Amino acid sequence: MLLTSLITLLITATLAYLIIMPLGGWLFEGMSWLFMHLEQ
Hints:
40 residues; mainly alpha; rod-shaped
């Protein structure tokens, strides 16, 4: 029972990580672009 929940948790965490990472990178790029254009 414990092992099953641990595996489920691991899979969920991996999926969340894979979904959030590109989003975070895209947001970071957008912010950098915005700041660069505001500075000029």
